[in-house]
Amino acid sequence: MAEQLYTIPVNEAFRTDCECPLCQIYQTLQQNAIDFTMGPSYMEDDVRLATNQLGFCKEHIKMLYQHQNRLGLALMMLSHTDRTIAEMKKIAKSSKSGQSGLFKKKEGDSLLKLFSDSLEDSCYICQRIDATFDRYVATIFHLYRTDDEFRKVFEKGKGFCVSHYVLLREGAAKSLKGSHQEEFLKTLDILFFDNMQRVRDELKWFTDKFDYRYADQPWGNSKDAVPRTIGKMNSVKIE
Predict the structure, then answer these.
(1) Burial label, 106 (beta-carbon count in 10 A; 0-12, 13-18, 19+)
(2) What's this model's pTM, rounded to 2 decimal places?
(3) Alpha helices, DSSP H only, in 97-224?
(4) What is the pLDDT of residues 221-237, one digit of tens each?
């Protein structure tokens, strides 16, 4: 059952007509995490404890704000703000009392700075996504080793964004061996570079279309080349 739960979303993503199936997986997990956090679960003790501790990154706090449940977000932010004020008061008080051992972890790094950095680097949504995303990546290698049908679908894809290409290439060194690794890396490189070139050429034609000499020429697949190139380069979906 556990294998089935993870193989279904992976198979669905790789059968989707998209520029990067891993971005597709991430975006689905992200939306699920937002919906979960903004649903009834925000009143559960374990969720509130985690959101109080971790808070949210800049990207995900914007997405949470765009959700309809403003009361749920307000309650979570209230608890997180109360915790932040309390912790920063403790740190500020320790520095005023001359407890330099508490105030500095190493030269140049105050506890206030370290605490502030921890708020910037931690996010309940990111943590929830990453735990599942890593298992999906492992599932990709498992399916490539064991499922002939998946390998055929993999080979017919439109490649990957830059960051997920690198992720898969590095992961293959740990998760695949022998002929499986060699075949995977060869296929991965072809998929990535051929499709990056395709998107690049479509982007070039998009720019050429603004030249009067090409005004009457067909657009082809270049009308949405800009958002698709952003997706390839920055792993961002532009609606």
Answers:
(1) exposed
(2) 0.86
(3) 100-103, 111-121, 124-146, 148-155, 162-175, 178-208
(4) 999 999 999 999 999 98
